[in-house]
Fold Cytochrome C.
Amino acid sequence: MKTLLFGLLALLVGSAHAADDARVLAPMPAAAEANLRSEMRASLLALNEILALVAAGQLREAAAVAERELGVSAMGKHRSQPFTARPGPHMPPSMHAIGIDGHRAASEFARVAASGDREQTVAALPTLTAACVACHLGYRLR
Ligand code: HEC
């Protein structure tokens, strides 16, 4: 009985979750999606590296990774590829704007971290993930 109840509960929670999914569907060609996903995984790795460097007090190194991997320097990586392989131009403008804001925020974080001020750098950490969260809560590819 207990397992049955639990199963029912899981089912209810599961379907409520699907019904609550208000994310906008923003599909793109397969090549663009593949590039987006691989860039996303690299961003996740970079984020973890930055957190570890900040925790270890290596602020200038954290600044360098933030600028190189997430900052404005990391924008337009696929510019030389065919149109169908470029994620940015296939995004709705509001989605694309979140992405650009995220790159700018990471560059701003890099500037703060490069100053070597630990307190300000720690205070700026949430600005690194704000765009990830905003875009993931707002959009999906499938
Ligand atoms: C402009 C929008 C946008 C921003 C900004 C963004 N993402 Fe994503 N991300 C997506 C979308 C869309 C998907 C695919 C979701 C789906 O499957 O429908 C995705 C998928 C992912 C995935 C799964 C990749 C895979 O192999 O399937 C990871 C990991 C990820 N994002 C990490 C991040 C991190 C970390 C950040 C911030 C540094 C970030 N993303 C910022 C839009 C964004």
Q: What stands out?
A: Residues 30-55 form the longest helix (26 residues).
